Amino acid sequence: MKIVDSMSIGRRLTGGFLIIFCVTLFLGIFWITATNSIQKHEEEANKYADINRMFLFMEIQHYQYTVDLGKSVKEKRRFTRTTDPTQCDFGKWYYGAKKDLPEDIIKLIHSIEEPHKLMHQKAKEVVDLAESGNYREAEEKTWEIFNYSLYNLAGVYASVLAEVQKKYDTSLADMNDNFRLNRILAVSLVLATMILVFIIAMVLTSSISAPLKEMMIVAGRIADGDLSHDYEIEDGAEQSDSEIKQLSVICGKVTRELKELVVQAERIAAGEIGSDEVERKLRAGMDMETAVAVETKKGELAAAFGRMQAQLRKLTVQARFIAEDNLNHAVLNVKIPGELGGAFWQMTTNLKEMAAIAAKIADGDLAVKIAAKSDNAVLSNAFSRMTGDLKQLINEVKAQTTQVANSSATLAQVSQQSTSTIAQLSSTITQMSSATSSVAQNSQTASTASHNADAASRKGRELMERLVEKIKMVKTSSETSAAAMDGLSMRSAQIGEIVSVITKIADQTNLLSLNAAIEAARAGEAGRGFAVVADEVRKLAENSASSAQEIAKIINEVQAETKTAAVSVRGGQKEIEEGAVLTEEASMRFAEIVGQIENIAHQIEEIAASAEETAASAEESSASSEEQTAAIEEISASAAQLSDTVKIMQKAIERFKM
Asked: Helices 135-144 & 103-131, crossing angle to 10 degrees?
C-alpha cells in the first residue's frame, strides 16, 4: 500500500489499467483459443455430418439410377443417364474431391470403388441388351443389379456411413467437452478478473479518495474560517511523486500561510500596524512609499495583505499627524487610493480648510464665508455659527463702546454741572432755613381752617346720601311705568291682529254673500228669499269690516301714543339713571373731599413738624454738599479714565474686518 501511495496518480491509473489490460488480453487470447478449438471441433463434426449426408445422397442416387434403368427397360425406351462410373455424381466426387477428406475417410471409401464400377458395368450390359432389342435379358440383368450389385454397394455404403457417424459422434462429444471446459475456465477467469478489477479499483480509490476526502474536510474548515486544526504531512511527502501527497503538502502550506495571515490580521486588528517604525523612518528622511513598505512572502494573497498593511500604515501615520495638529506635514499631501483613503483625504482637506479659516479669523478677518456642504456638516456649521456670533459680538461691543464713550462724555459734563449746582444748593439751603420758620407759623393757621372745612363737608355728604335715596325711588317708579307702557303696546298689537282677522272674516263673508246672491239669481223665484238673506249678510259683513277698520285706526293711534309715552318714559328713566349716577358720584366726591380735607389737616400738621426738622437738617445738608462736591470731582476723573479705555477698545475692534 505504501508503494501505491508513493506513486503518482498517473502511474497508479496506468498500472491499474495495465493490469486490467493484461487480464483482458489474457481473457481475449483464452477466448479466441477456446473459440478456435470449439470451432475446429465443430468444423470436424460438420465435415463428418456433410460426408454422412453426401453418402446418403449418393446411396439414394444409385438406388434411383437402378430404378430409372429398370423403368427404361420395362418401358422399352432409351436410357439417357451415363454408364461411365467416373461421370456419375459419385464418380465425379470420388475421383475429384475425395482428396479434401480425412485420410481415415479416404481409406473407408476405397471399398466402394469396385462395387460401384461393377454396378455401372452391369448397367452398361443392360443398356446394350436393350438397344439390341433383347429386353427380356436386359430385364433379368436389371433384377440382378437390384439383387446383387445394388445390395453389395448398399452394404459398403452402410459400413462407411457407420464409420462416418462414429467419427461424427466422437467429434461432437469432443466439441461439447471442450465447450464445457472452456465455459468453466471462462467463467472462472471472468470472476477472477472482476475480483482483480474490484481490488485494483478499491486500492486506487482508497489511495486517492481518502487523502482527497481529508483535504476536502480541511478545505471545508478553511472555507468556514476554522484554522485551528493542523494538517499532518507525512515524512518525505515533498519528495514523493504522488500528486496526492504533493497536494497534501500544498494544503498544509496553505493552512500555515492562512494561519500566518490570520495572525497578521489579528495584529492589524489589535492596532500593531508598525506605524512607529514608519514614523521613525519618515523622521530619518525616508520617503513615504519606502517607509510603509512591508516585507511579504510570495503570492498574491500575501502581497495583498502587505499592500493593505502598507495602506493602513499610511492612514495611521496621517491620523497621528492630524491628532498632533500638524496639518502642514508633507505626509498629509499624499492621497491614498481607495474609499478609505479618499475619505481620509477629504477629511484632511476639510481640516486644512477649517484651519485656514481659523487663521483668517485669528488675523481679524471676519468677512470670510464658510459654506456648509450639508445640514449634517457639524464642523463647518459650527465654524459658520462661531463666525456669525463673533461678528454679532464685535458689532455689539462696538456699539457698547460708542455708547460708553458717549456716556463718559455726558458724565463729565454732568459732573461739572453738578459742581455748580451744589454751590447754588448750598446758598438755597441757607435761604430755606429762614423760610421754614414762617412756614411753621402759617401751617398752624391752615390746620385750624382745615378742621372747619372738614365739619362742613361732613354735613354736605349726609345731604347727598339722602338725595341719592330719593333718586333711586324715582328710578324704580319710572321703570314700572316703562314696563306698563311696553305691556300696553304689546296688548294693542294683539288687538290689531284680532281686528285683522275680523277684517279677513268680513271679506270672506262678503264674498260668500256675493256667491249666494249669484246662486239665488240662478234659482229664480225659488231663490228670491235666499237673495234677501244674502244681501243682509253682505251688509252685515260690510258693517263689520267698517267697524274693524275704525278699531284698527284707533288701535294704531293708541300704539303711536303708547310708543311716544314709552319713549318719553325711557328718556326720563335714562335721565333719572344719569342723575342717580351723577348724584352717587357727587356723594363719592364729597366723601373724597372729606378724606382729602382730613389728609390736608394731617399733612399740615406734618408740615409744621417737618418745618422744624428742615430747619435742623439744613445745616447738615450744607455740610453734605461739600462732601458731594469732592465725590463729583472723583467721578469726573473716573469719566476721563473711562473715555481713554473706550478709545483703546475701539482701536482693538477696528482690526476686525466685517
From this structure: 160
pLDDT digits (tens, 9 = 90+) for 175-213: 888 888 888 888 888 888 888 888 888 877 776 777 777
Which of 284, 227, 235, 218 has the alpha carbon at shortest distance from 257? 227
Distance of CA 544 to the CA centre of its chain: 97
pLDDT digits (tens, 9 = 90+) for 541-567: 677 667 667 766 776 776 676 677 666
Q: Cβ distance 255 to 222 under 8 Å?
A: yes
- Residue 365's DSSP bridge partners are 657
* Residues 397, 405: Cα–Cα separation, whole Å: 12
Nearest-angstrom CA–CA distance, 361 and 367: 9
| Alpha-carbon separation of residue 134 from 80, 98, 140 (angstroms) | 18, 38, 10
* Contacts with 26 (C-beta within 8 Å, 6 or more apart), sequence order: 189
All 3 cell numbers of residue 402? 460708542
431: which 3 cell numbers? 435761604
For residue 153, how many other CB atoms are within 10 A of its CB? 23
pLDDT in tens, 83-98: 888 888 778 877 776 6
Number of Cβ atoms within 10 Å of the Cβ of 289: 10
Given the C-alpha cell 462724555, which residue does it identify?
A: 409
Helix 103-131 to helix 150-223 angle (10° resolution) is 140
User: Are 508 and 539 spatial neighbours (Cβ–Cβ below 8 Å)?
Assistant: no
Would you state the pLDDT for residue 368?
A: 66
- What's the DSSP call for residue 527? G
Q: How far is residue 530's CA from residue 653's CA, in Å, rounded to a whole number? A: 122
Check if the beta carbon of residue 141 is closer than 8 Å to that of residue 126.
yes
d(CA 416, CA 637) in angstroms, rounded, equals: 11
Q: Which of 485, 463, 466, 477 is nearest to 577 (CA)?
A: 477
Report which of residues 364 and 372 the model is more confident about.
364
Rg (CA), the chain: 81
pLDDT at position 214: 72
Give 112's strand partners.
Answer: none
Q: What is the mean pLDDT of residues 273-288?
A: 73
Of residues 591 and 124, more confidently modeled: 124
pLDDT at 432 over 60: no
In 3D, which of 319, 293, 291, 286 has the Cα closest to residue 307? 293
User: What digits encode the pLDDT tens for the residues 490-513?
Assistant: 766 666 676 576 677 667 766 766
Read off φ and ψ for residue 657, nearest 5 degrees.
Answer: -95, 120
CA distance 351 to 51: 120
Domains annotated for the chain, with CATH where assigned, are: 2-216 (1.20.120.30), 243-387 (no CATH), 436-653 (1.10.287.950)
pLDDT at residue 429 above 60? no
Flag whether pLDDT at 611 surpasses 80.
no
Q: Count Cβ atoms below 10 Å from residue 555 Cβ, excluding itself.
A: 20
Beta-carbon contacts of residue 51 (< 8 Å; ≥ 6 apart):
101, 105, 164
Residue 650 vs residues 367, 368, 568: alpha-carbon distances, Å: 18, 22, 79
138-152, 242-256, 351-365 — which is least confidently predicted? 242-256
